């Protein structure tokens, strides 16, 4: 039976109050997730790591994902002493940056930030002291990090790799490429230039 144009079909309309409550509940659940030592706080417009998360999860977190925020500082990162993996993709990090002491950190992703000087982020002495286990770094799509696929300047990309291999001698992977023994030797020889 056809409806009249001015008649509302209340049988098919969702209960707006219930839908709003469910949306709020869903948003609350999406704000962060902690499971098996992994803390994910993705897409929350954070400018820094909230102290409340540090207090609650810091000592138990091994993997921290802060992607898709507005993070511009590493403030409070020292509250995660057992951190092994850190994902800071798609944030507002710029150079210079100084990493706190994170002795277990082996994997660092900082793709798609605003880093224009990798030397101001990875000082050789600071890396040796504060990030002694670091062996996987990805810095793709930062202004100061050449990309062999996009910019097509392979020599510039090689110099960038040598430079970082000199600064982070234990690297096994840089960006998405495995470090070769030849690169490692060349990085130690000329990477400081």
UniProtKB/TrEMBL annotation:
Signal peptide: none annotated. Pfam families: LRR_9. It comes from the Eukaryota. Gene3D superfamilies: Ribonuclease Inhibitor (3.80.10.10). This is Leucine-rich repeat-containing protein 51. It comes from Paramoeba aestuarina.
